[in-house]
Design a protein that fits this description.
single chain; 444 residues; alpha/beta; Alpha-Beta Plaits; 3-methyladenine DNA Glycosylase II, Chain A, domain 3; four-stranded parallel β-sheet; three-stranded parallel β-sheet; 36% helix
Length: 444
């Protein structure tokens, strides 16, 4: 299977094999082998959960440096709405937009404007098209990849619209061509990103032939530069660059997109664990009375991205205050939904969780996994380097691990084949699990 670009990277020199990441990965894409974490490329959805949880900062996101904009003659900044929530007492987004010009960009185009256009398209599709309900938002790239990897049967529930970032980039590039007369190769469009999933969506787009975005710069990189410029700006001399309203800016926090759909039958869930719970309920057909579902992998929505600076709860409160100064919406679709706003082609599932390429072999391996799981303690402790006992069994049948990776199984075998006393054998068990009743370990 060919690998794709991943924005989440691992520095093995910093990794101490602490096991924290393997328990939080939503697609079980991480293993710890020989004391170091390893990321299974095909399973990774670049949600950034491992970046948040790693106490040793061994995981990071590969964003573009600000200096990369110098490769282009004309430089456009696409600020995510979540950028506005990073600044205290912000009552005019033109402070942020003007500061972006002062740190090297030639123009800015709010992603909040693209969000309002996508919101309008969503409302029209919910009203006029016979969509499979509940309709699931496609604004969060990590959620799209999660569905593709773990819930492929729900692909038909995804709304086939590109993200506000993509629509904003397309419109910004059109404006730049008309204004400057430059070719596309001389126009650089850079998204100011709150999370690694957006970086991956740029470098390796799904359901699209290409993207009009040339790169992604982390909010955490531009934030200190913007603060320095904003502190020196005179309110009376701000450039009038604002092009969006409450609906667009509201996309930065969980619930903003869903409320903009103007349907009462919606759900907005944030945080990868909560996203998984909702997808499982959709899979079980428990939410058929819901029309629209907004899902964000980051807690709080985009304001909770691991490349932001402010606490996500604080940022959300700041945005609530900021929206008081904004009109409801500044952007609508004049006629029909432009075809460029839709997917270029259907999204294909990525079958990385299957055990074999054909049903017969898969069933055989599945039976082997089920039998092997019975011989493990069922604690899902992670000391073997896999997140669960079943994950270890799957690794074994695939040839990626050994039964000897389970310390409890080794202890059991040693107890039956050596003359070591119980105290010596008990020392083989990690401290948190010593003294557990062996009847509960389900040995066979």
């Amino acid at each position: 299977m060919s690998t794709v670009f991943h924005s989440v990277s691992l520095d093995k020199d910093k990794c101490l094999g602490c096991m924290n990441c393997i328990k939080r990965c939503p697609t079980q894409a991480i293993r710890v082998r020989r004391g170091k974490a390893t990321i299974i490329s095909e399973r990774c959805i670049d949600c950034g959960e491992c970046i948040r949880i790693c106490p040793h900062h061994a995981k990071s996101a590969m964003s573009d440096p600000l200096s990369s904009i110098e490769e282009y003659k004309y430089k456009i900044a696409l600020p995510a709405p979540s950028l506005y929530g990073q600044f205290n007492n912000l009552d005019d987004v033109n402070f942020v937009l003007t500061a972006l010009l002062q740190i090297g960009f030639d123009s800015v185009f709010e992603v909040a404007k693209g969000a309002e256009i996508v919101s309008d398209a969503t409302r029209r599709m919910l009203k006029n098209q016979n969509l499979i309900k509940p309709v699931i938002s496609t604004a969060c790239p990590a959620v799209i990849r999660l569905v593709r990897v773990r819930y492929p049967e729900l692909i038909d529930n995804l709304i086939t619209l590109k993200t506000p970032m993509d629509e904003s980039a397309r419109l910004a590039r059109i404006e730049a061509r008309e204004k400057t007369g430059l070719d596309d190769k001389d126009i650089g469009v850079f998204f100011i990103t709150p999370c690694p999933a957006k970086i991956t969506a740029i470098k390796s787009p799904l359901a699209a032939d290409h993207t009009d975005v040339n790169g992604a710069i982390a909010i955490s990189e531009v934030y200190p530069l913007l603060v320095q410029k904003m502190d020196k700006l005179d309110r009376e001399k701000l450039e009038a660059l604002e092009q969006s309203g409450r609906i667009g800016v509201g996309w930065a926090a969980s619930g903003g997109e869903a409320s903009a759909s103007l349907t009462e039958k919606y759900i907005a869930a944030d945080g990868i664990e909560n996203v998984i719970k909702i997808l499982e309920e959709v899979e079980d057909e428990k939410l058929n009375d819901i029309e629209f579902i907004e899902l964000n992998a980051c807690t709080g929505g985009c304001v909770g991205g691991c490349l932001t600076v402010a606490n996500n709860f604080v940022a959300k409160t700041r945005l609530t205050t900021l929206k008081k100064y904004l009109p409801v919406s500044c952007n609508h679709i004049e006629q029909d939904i432009p075809k460029e706003l839709g997917w270029d082609y259907p999204l294909e599932p990525l079958s990385v969780l299957k055990l074999a390429d054909n049903v017969t072999d898969s069933m055989k391996l599945m039976n082997q996994v089920s039998e092997m799981v019975k011989s493990f303690p069922g604690l899902d402790c992670g000391t073997c380097g896999a997140p669960t006992c079943r994950a270890l069994a799957e690794d074994i049948v695939r040839g990626y691990a050994s039964v000897d990776d389970c310390i409890f199984r080794i202890r059991n075998e040693m107890a039956s084949s050596t003359e070591l006393n119980d105290n010596d054998i008990d020392k083989l068990i990690p401290v948190p699990f010593r003294g557990i009743d062996e009847e509960k370990l389900k040995w066979t």
